Amino acid sequence: MSRRQPSPLLSVQPCRGLWDEKLCITVQKLPPGQEVTLHSLLHSEDGDFWEAFGHYVSDATGAVRVAEDASVGGSYTGVEPMGLLWGLSPAAGSRPGLRLRKKDVCSPSTIHISVYEGHVVQGFKERKALALVDAERWYLAPGVQRIEVNEHGITGTLFLPAGFGPFPAILDLWGGGGGLVEYRSALLAAHGYAALALQYLSQKEMPSVGNEYFEAAFTFLQNHPRVCGNKVALFGLSFGTSVSLGLAAYSTVIQPRCLVCVSGSHVQPVGGSLADIFIQFGKNAHKTRYDDQQRVIWRDLLLPIPTDPSQKVDVGRIRCPVLLIVGEDDQNWPASESAEDMERMMEEAGKSHLFTKLSYPGAGHLIEPPYGPHVRASNFITLGTKAMLLWGGQAQPHSHAQEDSWQKTLAFLERHLYGVGVTAGL
């Protein structure tokens, strides 16, 4: 009389957690040496399906431990504990140019994780899974308050950590795509920072805001009753880095405690408005390149790095610690060349001790909080114009860069905003 093989047991822990928390995924009660496929599926807020899969072989005890065992094929290979998340890509037949970004931080993203018999590469919907578990991933932690801000002439969303504070604060500036992007600020609040996601660019109109707009936002944060007013940082990505560097160097109102700059440049007309920066980009439009798939490469618009001091921020004027994060395969901005020039300028100003650079081979432009899927190219709309932009990067090194830089960013912020002596290798 044969004994029936028990059903496999799939475990995902935590089943409800923050986006930057690692998952522990295990399968047990398999036959030893069993080939299986682990599959993840996400239905985005835009109605698109994203999926990833890894091929595994169970060990002598009939178990697969994703944190320890290597994937031998699929969306990723090797030991990749979070490969089922960062390896997500649009399902076959999806619209071109997709990018996965969370819009409603008050709701979770649900990841459906399944295990299938054999090494499967397609047709998951038509197959019966051996086991299925759902995992909720959140940007908004329990107790964090989300407050819409439309006062003092500014527009944004303020996230306040649980508790009474006062908390260190971060003014969060995104890039040239415009709009209001909240998910990084929500996640920063989960780590103990009051974070203001600021809207300052329109997707259809030339930006008209000046330094006074950002100064009003910075002052709003400083004066908030649950904010420690002398511990406010700037956090910029892409075009937001350009804004942050200019403010830190020249504003008499904004005196940040520290500065985090991701995938940006200091090249811009000094003393001009945001509109002047876009106008300068337009003058250099003839430097636009295209890859073999006709995807737009903009990095040359700011090259060569100018020697004229009126065409770049004098970063030597910055008096606070600066963390600069660079993807060496950035195809959208000349981040590496800009970082080298900024490093030289800080050294000449005697401020090398304030400057930390994290440079990642194989990483592209969109270095964001960890475990979101890498997107090498996507649709992009700015000033009413739509294009397919090449951001750069390769999935595995880019995803490792996101994880490493996020941990070091949190350590940098903790050290300079909370005064805790954490170095995390910086």
Give a quick precis of the structure:
With 426 residues, the protein is an alpha/beta fold. Helix content is 20%, strand content 29%.
Per-chain topology:
Layout: E1 9-13, E2 16-18, E3 24-28, E4 35-43, E5 49-57, E6 64-65, H1 83-86, E7 89-90, E8 109-117, E9 131-138, E10 145-151, E11 154-160, E12 167-173, H2 183-190, E13 194-199, H3 211-223, E14 227-237, H4 239-250, E15 259-262, H5 274-283, E16 289-290, E17 296-297, E18 322-327, H6 335-348, E19 355-360, E20 377-382, E21 385-390, H7 395-418
Parallel strand pairs: 2-9, 12-13, 12-14, 14-15, 15-18, 18-19
Antiparallel strand pairs: 1-3, 3-6, 4-5, 4-8, 5-7, 8-9, 10-11, 11-13, 16-17, 20-21
Domain BAAT/Acyl-CoA thioester hydrolase C-terminal: 212-418
Organism: Paramormyrops kingsleyae
Family: Belongs to the C/M/P thioester hydrolase family.
Number of strands: 21
Q: What is the radius of gyration computed over CA atoms, rounded to a whole number of angstroms? A: 23 Å
Structural class: alpha/beta
Largest sheet: 8 strands, mixed
Overall shape = globular
Q: Quaternary status of these chains?
A: single chain
Helix content: 10-25%
Write down the overall mean pLDDT. Answer: 93
Distance between the termini: 63 Å
H/E element string? EEEEEEHEEEEEEHEHEHEHEEEHEEEH
* CATH third-level topology of the largest domain: Rossmann fold
Low-confidence stretches: 421-426
Could you say how many structural domains there are in total? 2
Q: In percent, how much strand structure appears in the residues?
A: 25-35%
GO molecular function: fatty acyl-CoA hydrolase activity
Active site: 238, 330, 365
Domain Acyl-CoA thioester hydrolase/bile acid-CoA amino acid N-acetyltransferase: 20-151
Family: Belongs to the C/M/P thioester hydrolase family.
